[in-house]
Design brief:
The protein is an alpha+beta fold. The protein is built from three helices and four strands; from the N terminus they run H-H-E-E-H-E-E. Helices cover 35% and strands 24% of the residues. The relative contact order is 0.20.
């Protein structure tokens, strides 16, 4: 469901993943913040808070890389059209830093569009 209260479930899910990965505190916190931002953006912007639409969070471990995919039923975002959160006119805004945070915390992020939705794919190299 696209309800912001379900963002709390992200931490529980990632803690289960971390039991297998044994990430350090700093790396786990980066994963948690980036993933929470992605899920929150999917609920609010992607699905427009429509409770009938779903957000799907999946994690895949390949070699020493964690791939996190957050998919929604929205039309997607062109990250090149987002305002620069570091520009003077945006510094005091209360929102608009989610993608910036994800890029800062993860090793790589990509945006994809599908026929029935969109996804952000975040890659973290494990230490």
């Amino acid at each position: 469901m696209s309800d912001p209260k379900h963002v709390l479930d992200v931490e529980i899910f990632l803690e289960k993943i971390n039991k297998k990965l044994n990430l350090g505190e700093a790396q786990f916190n980066k994963l948690l913040v980036a993933t929470t931002e992605a899920v929150n953006n999917s609920i609010i912007h992607g699905n427009q808070r429509d409770p009938e639409k779903k957000v799907t969070l999946t994690c895949e471990l390949t070699d020493r890389t964690l791939i996190v995919v957050v998919q929604d039923e929205g039309s997607g975002v062109d990250p090149n059209t987002l305002p620069d959160p570091l520009a003077a006119e945006n510094l005091l805004r209360e929102n608009g830093r989610g993608v910036f945070l994800m890029r800062s915390l993860m090793d790589e992020i990509k945006f994809e569009r599908f026929q029935n939705g969109a996804a952000v794919i975040m890659i973290m190299k494990l230490k």
